[in-house]
Design a protein that fits this description.
62% of the residues lie in helices and 5% in strands. Helix 12 packs antiparallel against helix 13. The strands form two sheets. The chain has a three-stranded antiparallel β-sheet with strand order 1-2-3. The protein folds into four domains: 68 residues; 101 residues; 151 residues, no CATH class; 55 residues, Zinc/RING finger domain, C3HC4 (zinc finger) (Herpes Virus-1), CATH 3.30.40. The two termini are 51 Å apart. With 396 residues, the protein is mainly alpha-helical. The chain is built from 16 helices and five strands. The chain is extended, with a radius of gyration of 29 Å.
Length: 396
């Protein structure tokens, strides 16, 4: 299969390709940022990331010959960006905004942050700044792709960076990290879920002194075990990547919002949250049913490295199947919807077209000339339409 044919298939199924890129990038970067404690599974991030960039390269690679600019109807993303940039007047200043954002992040790390090294949040800010700098220089034919990248990092900053910075300013504690999410949105809820299935547990501070919360439970056989819910276990990064990708995807692909989009958006956020709770519950159950303390630790390590992926791929695959089923109709369904919008001949129920001779009754009803010739009577007002009138109107 040559590249042009493969590219044609990718462009006809753009939404599916974009979804595959999102999942592969999320999987690859999550393996890099949160490598498992045992084994070298993080090496699998290489084929995920390389495969994602290969799909993007094939999708975006210009076709040979003269490229005709694609005329696209305004999407939610284009209308939103047009409004916030005052009809595009601020777009030329995007590179300057990106440079200012990078400078502010450097100043923050040098004089305010207790850790001057670049953290994950700094990386997110820098990537958003890079998307701002490069935005005006991306060719117009890639407007959807550049809007997606910009909005993806913009939403990621709103979810991960802005709330954390606001909390640090409010508390006056710039050492506060994302462990606050685990303490407030995961550990107490995990304790409730475990109690519902009959596993008693206690939530408390990390006995080793970190700011992450700890959960104490006693396996059926063995000594009590502390499970520390660190940043890697909090699920905040997976949730944020999903929320940002889904929001940017909907804004770029849709021209207007409807109730189904809001329902699926809420369903996706709730499913992402409970999927992480389920993952933590499975990890504790694996340690709870083990026979020895050593087996408990090993079982939880195995579950920590593998259960999350199975749960994540399961719920996100189901979720995106719902997206393509209820938000993006198939091409055949779209054609049927378009046909319903056309005026139909009351006799044959086929669309009326300027290329097919038609006749209008005095009451306003339209017919194909060939159809009305057979009956000679209007179905609406029951008037008789003579053959000569039909021929005369057909000629006009």
């Amino acid at each position: 299969m040559d590249l042009s044919r493969l590219q044609g298939i990718f462009r006809r199924h753009r939404a599916i390709v974009v979804f595959a890129v999102i999942v592969m990038l999320a999987a690859g970067f999550d393996l890099l940022l949160n490598p498992p404690e045992r084994g070298r599974i993080e090496i699998l991030s290489i084929p995920f990331i390389v495969g994602a960039f290969f799909l993007l390269a094939v999708l975006l690679w210009p076709r040979p010959g003269k490229v005709k600019p694609e005329r696209l109807e305004p999407t939610l993303a284009s209308r939103f960006l047009n409004k916030v940039t005052f009809n595009g007047k601020l777009v030329p200043f995007f590179p300057l905004m990106g440079i200012i954002l990078i400078s502010l992040d450097v100043v923050y790390n040098a004089f305010i942050s207790p850790s001057p090294t670049l953290q994950i949040h700094d990386t997110i800010v820098l990537l958003f700044a890079i998307s701002l700098i490069s935005y005006p220089f991306v060719p117009q034919r890639f407007n959807r792709e550049r809007d997606f990248v910009l909005l993806f990092f913009f939403v990621l900053v709103l979810i991960l960076v802005v709330p954390l910075l606001a909390i640090r300013l409010y508390q006056g504690n710039f050492e506060e990290g994302v462990n606050i999410y685990s303490r407030t949105m995961l550990a107490p809820q995990l304790q409730v879920m475990l109690s519902l299935i009959g596993i008693p547990s206690t939530v408390g501070p990390d006995p080793w002194g970190s700011s992450a919360p700890g959960l104490l439970f006693t396996p059926q056989q063995g000594e009590p075990i502390w499970v520390v819910i660190t940043t890697a276990c909090s699920g905040i990064y997976s949730f944020s990547i999903f929320a940002s990708a889904f929001t940017a995807f909907v804004l770029v692909e849709l021209k207007k919002l409807n109730w189904r989009v809001w329902v699926l958006l809420l369903l996706g956020f709730v499913a992402a949250y409970f999927a992480n709770l389920l993952r933590m519950t499975v990890i504790v159950i694996a340690g709870y049913i083990s026979q020895t303390p050593e087996e408990s630790i090993n079982s939880m390590m195995i579950a920590h490295s593998n259960a999350g992926w199975l749960i994540f791929l399961g719920w996100i695959s189901l979720f995106w199947l719902l997206i393509f089923r209820f938000i993006f109709p198939k091409k055949e369904d779209a054609l049927k919807i378009q046909e319903k919008k056309l005026a139909l001949c009351p006799i044959c129920n086929e669309p009326l077209s300027p290329t097919i001779p038609g006749t209008r009754c005095v009451c306003g009803s339209l017919y194909h000339s060939s159809c009305i010739q057979k009956s000679g009577q209007c179905l609406n007002c029951q008037r008789q339409i003579s053959r000569t009138k039909i021929e005369e109107k057909s000629l006009t």
